[in-house]
Design goal:
This protein is mainly β. It is built from three helices and twelve strands; from the N terminus they run αβββαββββαβββββ. Strands 1, 2, 3, 4, 6, 7, 8, 9, 10 and 12 form a ten-stranded antiparallel beta sheet that branches. The chain has a two-stranded antiparallel ribbon with strand order 5-11. Strand 2 and strand 3 form a beta hairpin.
Length: about 190
């Protein structure tokens, strides 16, 4: 079951979900939509460098390698990051989210999705990793952003970059470790 804007706020108030800072509590206005909540872009963009290393998909993700082979850019309203066509960057949400799996429930998971108004410029905010599992956080959500459009896109902080669609899990999930559960940077 997908939560409505009213249910999302009730779950936050009950401590079943945490979204900090929330950016507003009026469910008829942003950041709320009828069945999602918008999240904003944090002020750091991480750009993986082109390296001579090939990546095997049957090995663990190497967050140390990516941290050492990426450049970070701090963006402002007056100094945006210019996302060129066919270029890929990592970013994070400004908000820290948490989906605890303690207590009696109910328990929640979510999906991160792009906003249609931004996708019409050709921007994707994730490729195939939309799931935010129960137990995630507290952490910011990493976004895998690519410009598939024909024109440059200016990335500025605090823009409503994506939407979080929250769903109830049928029962308490068993704990499964994840290297991304409490990530502190876009590279892991």
């Amino acid at each position: 079951m997908i939560l409505s804007n009213v249910d999302i706020l009730a779950a936050i108030d009950a401590g079943r979900i945490s979204i900090e800072p929330l950016g507003g509590r009026d469910v008829s206005r942003p950041p709320f939509n009828a069945s999602s909540v918008d999240l904003r872009l944090a002020p750091t963009i991480t750009v993986p460098r082109s390296t001579p290393t090939s990546h095997r998909l049957d090995t663990e993700y190497d967050k140390v390698y990516y941290a050492q082979n990426s450049d970070k850019y701090e963006i402002t309203d007056t100094s945006p990051y210019v996302l060129k066509p066919n270029f890929f960057v990592l970013a994070q949400t400004l908000e820290t989210v948490y989906f605890p799996t303690t207590g009696d429930g109910p328990f929640y998971a979510a999906r991160i999705e792009g906003r249609s108004s931004l996708s019409r410029y050709g921007m994707l905010v994730h490729f195939t990793a939309p799931t935010i599992h129960g137990g995630f956080g507290p952490a910011r959500i990493t976004l895998e952003i690519i410009n598939l459009g024909h024109n440059d896109i200016l990335l500025t902080p605090n823009v409503r970059i994506c939407q979080l669609i929250i769903e109830e899990i049928s029962c308490r999930p068993d704990d499964t470790p994840s290297q991304f559960r409490t990530q502190t940077s876009a590279t892991g």
